[in-house]
Amino acid sequence: MATTLIDTRKSIMGQIHESWNQFRSTDEAMVLMFGEVGSNYNDYHNIPLGKDFTKNDAPWTSKQSVLEKNTAHANKLIRLYIALNIDVAYRMPIWKFFEIQSGVVGRIKDETKLLKRIQKAMKLEQQLGLDTSDATSLFAHTGNLIIDELEADLKVKVKEAAKAAKVAAKAAKKLSATHAKVAAKAKKLALKAGVQAAKKGAKKIARIEKAEAKKIAKAEAKALREHKKLVAAQAKENRKFVLAVAKQIEKNSIAAEKLGNKLAKKTIALLKWAEAHEFELEHIVDILESEIESARSDNTMETIIDISA
Q1: Mind listing the pLDDT tens digit of every residue in the chain (309 residues)?
Q2: How far is 115 from 86, CA to CA, in rounded Å?
Q3: Which residues lie closer than 8 Å to 270 by C-beta, 6 or more apart?
Q4: Which long-range contacts (CB under 8 A, 24 or more apart) does 115-123 make?
Q5: Distance (Å, rounded) from C-alpha 247 to C-alpha 255?
Q6: What's the 3-state SS for the chain?
Q7: pTM value surpassing 0.85
């Protein structure tokens, strides 16, 4: 049976012979060669091998153009056999794709068309989430369901699925609209809550700033009072200092005045004494300078001259 594609790079006739040699040991081959009755009195060894057939008695064509044409059709069918995993018992053997009989190409095309319908139906079953049917039973008509019935049933299911999808789409659209409304409302509420929170925050910040401003103003007032106290104390100290300086100046002025009076008296007394004792003027000046320096150091005018004398 056809389990692999016909290899066009090799001899097609050689592959036909190989296929026939496998087929000749089957009951079908016995009936083909000897008929229903004759198959009972013959052995498959009596069936010739593929290479032993002559051009005239071979059950297949030997015309190269026909071999190539039929190979193209055969490989399309074999691909479907393999893809759908059709039981080999129901596959055409390779040699039969080239059998000399009318309608072999038509049979190949009919089987190909049927397998394509089965493939399409099984794919649709998968898309609908259904259990896939058995391709061999549909192909060989061995099951309870034929392809026509399956296609009709799937057609109904497709309509139902489309209707359900439409309802689901409508429900999804409605749900989406509801979600959009809820989201918009939530956004609006969040925005409102945010604005209220911002207002409360602004008020709180204003209260804090106001309290801080009061603290700063209080601290500045206190600092100003302390500064005024310091300035007043400094002014008081400056006034005391000025008064003390003025008092000292006045005291020094009085002392200087007294000193000047004493010095004047002593100077007159000294001049009189010097005149009486015939002292020279330079000597008198030296004595006066000495008296002045002494008076600066102790504020007294003690001299060798006794004023009271």
Answers
A1: 788 999 999 999 999 999 999 999 999 999 888 888 777 778 888 899 999 999 889 999 999 999 999 999 999 999 999 999 999 999 999 999 999 977 899 999 999 999 999 999 999 999 999 999 999 999 999 989 999 999 999 999 999 999 999 999 999 899 889 888 888 888 888 788 777 877 887 788 888 888 887 887 787 878 778 878 876 777 788 678 757 766 876 786 777 677 677 767 777 777 777 777 776 767 777 777 776 677 666 555 444 445 444
A2: 9
A3: 284, 287, 288, 291, 303, 305
A4: 115/77, 115/80, 115/81, 115/84, 115/86, 115/139, 116/80, 117/147, 117/151, 118/84, 118/147, 119/80, 119/83, 119/84, 121/147, 121/150, 121/151, 121/154, 122/84
A5: 12
A6: CCCCCCCCCCCHHHHHHHHHHHHCCCHHHHHHHHHHHHCCCCCHHHCCCHHHCCCCCCCECCCHHHHHHHHHHHHHHHHHHHHHCCCHHHCCCHHHHHECCCCHHHHHHHHHHHHHHHHHHHHHHHHCCCCCCCHHHHHHCCCCCCHHHHHHHHHHHHHHHHHHHHHHHHHHHHHHHHHHHHHHHHHHHHHHHHHHHHHHHHHHHHHHHHHHHHHHHHHHHHHHHHHHHHHHHHHHHHHHHHHHHHHHHHHHHHHHHHHHHHHHHHHHHHHHHHHHCCCCHHHHHHHHHHHHHHHHHHCCCCCCCCCCC
A7: no
Owner of token pair 């005045």 = 257
